[in-house]
Structure formats: structure tokens, C-alpha cells
Input
Amino acid sequence: MDSAAAQLAPLLARLVDFERTRPNARLWDLATMRALLADSGLPPGPHPAVQIGGSKGKGTTCAFLEALARAAGLLSGVYSSPHLVTLLERVRIGGENVELGRLERLLRQAVATDCGDRRPTFFEAMTAAAAAAFAERGVELAIYEVGLGGRFDATTALDVDASIVTTIELEHTEILGDTVELIAAEKAAIVRPGGVGFTAARGAALATIAAHATAVGARLAVLGRDFDHGEPEFGDDGACRFLLRFPDGVEQRVTLPAARAFEVPALALAAVALRHLLPTAPLVLDPAPRPLLPARFEIFDEPDGEVLALDGAHTEESLRAVAAELARRFPGRKAALLFAAAAGKRWREGLSALLPRVDNAVVTGLVGTPGEDPAAIASWLAARGIASETAADVESGLAALRRRPGPRLVAGSFYLAGAVRELVHDRATTR
Output
């Protein structure tokens, strides 16, 4: 039970929460958010600030940028979504969740603002409160993660000094468009006129982002072209080592302890962005700080000697990365899977990417957001030779998963990963 959300419930109930209702079309623009920032009396967000968007890796990039800033002795602020256990996770200052009293006070001020025809949504009010909290605490680097898309996301109404677009794939197609180019155009909009952008996108997505940057007079640095992490080497000690080349040609040795392969581009993006934003700050990369990445291939040692990996991956490419990490960590073994999908997700495509590393599956529903039918998913899996069953809820799904040999994997939704994490994190060893 999230005590913070329970205390804030009477206030939050006055706000539309599109994360929970999941509309199949965009029902918002930036007008209300801009009015909120202009008329609420809340202090504007501090500088330097960076906005991070993309289909995959934006949360990991935020976490590495926060870790690098803290290693440099800076007070960082991170606004991210969704949360796993408590609403307070969405606003972190100096690595700690925002104080409930501060968040409640700032949210009340935001909700009380007359923004014209429409009341601020939950995400808009949270965004304004996060920026104000960062200002009140004197944050030295503000990091804002895009909620959905980019062009009309509330974080795009904030003034930032740089933007990061991680990678692009098909997701939220009912709102963002049904081609990679259309989705890239929505996400490219976070690269501001006359600003600076960094991206790991490729192919048609990169071409779209580059065209946008040219059109708005922004500078765009591309991973693999303007900066590069070379060929990472994974050692027997679990660390990954590579040579990071910056856009100005400077090179720096990087050692990332307990590395996952998908973290390498995220760390490269974060390091290059920090060096641009705060060029005199020390950049600690050998070894690089290891951020806590909840539900991003987070491994728990189970009481019976097996392992449980939690990952909120829900897109095709992110689940393909999970499959690759399973193959690297557990060669020759297939996983038992606990899966759930939020409504409207491309779960067939995502599961297709994961299935080569899955032996059997348990499918359950979600609490707090509309989900896809577990029986339909289980039937689809069974038709592809994966022994499957459904579970009435997350707790019974976890119990069914634990009756199967490992490795055990929980994936498909951050809502699912968060619910499982709450059940296991006090009773298992993390590594």
C-alpha cells in the first residue's frame, strides 16, 4: 500500500490521470501546462536542465545521469515515471524521494491554479511540482523524463538546456502514429529550437530527428557518429569496459561494474550530456557509479537458490534486450516467465522477441491500469508451444512462477514489476 498516494488521494482525485485511463487518442496539448507554469506562482525549474525522451532506455539514461552528477558532487533532481512502489519515487533530489509534505504543498498550489478551459492533469501537476521542488532545494542539475511522446508532453513546456532522444520503435501507435517516422517526429520535438540534442537513434528514426534538428537550428550529436563507445568488453568480474569518445575527440576509459549490455548506450548518452552541460564538473567513469535501477533486469536471489529477474520492459526492442541479457547471464537455460501487459501495448510483438529464451509462462492481470486479457495472452503463447497458465492476481502469479525452475523472469509492464518487487524486495537478496 502506497501511504503517500493514500494521503494525497483526495487531492489527486480531482485530476484526470491518463496513465490510469489510457485514452486511445491524445486529449491534451501544452496550453494548460504553459498556463500552469505562468500563473501558479510556483518557482520555475533550475538550470542547467535536460529533458530525456525515446522509446527505450530513457529511464536508464536518467539514472546514469543522476549517478554521474552525484559522483561529481552535484545536487541532482530527477523527475521520472511511472513509479514502482510509491508516488514519491517520481521526484528525487540528491538520490532521495521528495518529502511528502513538500510534494503535497506544491501539488495543492498547482491544482488551485486557474488554467482556463481545462484543469491540469495529474501528470501536468506533478511536472510543475517537480520543477518547483528542484528550485526550492537549489538543484544543480535538473533531469526531466518524458512521460509519453514528446511534442505535447508536459515536460516539453519546461525550459531546458539540452535534450536526449534514446532510441525509437513502434509504441503508443494509437496516439503517436503507426510508423517509426511518425513516432520519431513526435519524440524529436523535445530537441528545442537553437538547442542541443543527443541521440542513439538509427535508420529512419535518426533521419527524422536529424531533419527536425536542422529545421529548428539545433545541434545534434549522434551515438556512433559524433561520439562512440566502441566495442564493450564484458569481463569475468561482471564489469563492462570500453573507451568513450566524446564529440570533441577526447577519449576516456570507462569501467561499469555489474553491467547489463543495454546500459552501455545509456551511460554514453549520460556522460556526453553531462560533459556538455557542466564541462568543469569531474566526470567519474573508471569506475562509473552504479545506479540503482529498479525493475531493469534487477536480479534477486530466491530462497530456494534460484534467481528472479524483474524488468518492466514492454516494447519489442526492450524485450529483445531482455532476451539477450538472459542469454548472456544464463547461457543454455530458458526462463520461466510471469507476464502481464497494459491495454493497447504491442504484446504479441514484444513476446515474439522474448520467446526464444522462454520455456513456460504464467500470465496475470494488472492493478491500477487497464490490462490485456490474461487468457488471450496465455492462449497465444500456448499456440506457439509455450506451456502457459493464468493467475488471478500478481501474488498468485508469483507463487505459480516460484513453483517452476529458474531462472525466473517478470516482464511486460512496470506495473507488474513494481507489484512483484513490493512482494519480494524485503525477503530476497538483490544483486
Remarks:
- The two ends are 25 Å apart (CA to CA).
- The chain has a mean pLDDT of 93.
